[in-house]
């Protein structure tokens, strides 16, 4: 089989989608009451209210601020800030190599540079 540029692009796109959606199927608890919406924006219709402490099943987490979920048999979108996932996404975005060590004071940095 010959690998064409378009085939390679399709394979890469599928692999990225797998990585993005690695948490699909996971149950998530809401940390606050939120709206289940028809689309990933506040202007979308409200399908239901999801009480704080509810369990939702993750369907898609590819949007930066929204999660597509199943709640009580209805599929829709909730704001990521209504779950603990927002903090996890922020933590994943920070590369530990880019953060200073325990002594990031000017004196500590100077000592490390000499060292």
Task: Give structural notes.
This protein is of the alpha+beta class. It has a domain at 23-93: Roll (SH3 type barrels). The protein is 30% helix and 26% strand. The protein contains 3 helices and 6 strands, in the order αββββββαα. The protein has helices at 5-20, 85-93, 106-114, and strands at residues 27-29, 34-37, 46-50, 55-60, 66-71, 74-79. Strands 1-4-5-6 form a 4-stranded antiparallel beta sheet, with no helix packed on it. The protein is elongated and about 50 Å long. The N and C termini lie far apart (55 Å). Residues 89-100 have low confidence and may be disordered.
Give the key terms:
115 residues, 26% strand, 3 helices, alpha+beta, four-stranded antiparallel beta sheet, two-stranded antiparallel ribbon, 30% helix, 6 strands, SH3 type barrels
């Amino acid at each position: 089989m010959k690998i064409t540029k378009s085939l390679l692009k399709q394979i890469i796109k599928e692999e990225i989608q797998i990585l993005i959606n690695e948490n699909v199927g996971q149950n998530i608890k809401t940390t606050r009451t939120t709206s289940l919406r028809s689309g990933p924006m506040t202007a979308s219709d409200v399908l239901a209210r999801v009480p704080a402490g509810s369990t939702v099943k993750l369907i898609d987490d590819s949007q930066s601020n929204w999660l597509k979920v199943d709640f009580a048999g209805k599929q829709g979108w909730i704001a990521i800030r209504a779950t603990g996932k927002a903090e996890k996404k922020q933590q994943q975005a920070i590369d530990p190599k880019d953060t200073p060590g325990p002594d990031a004071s000017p004196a500590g940095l100077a000592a490390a540079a000499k060292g």
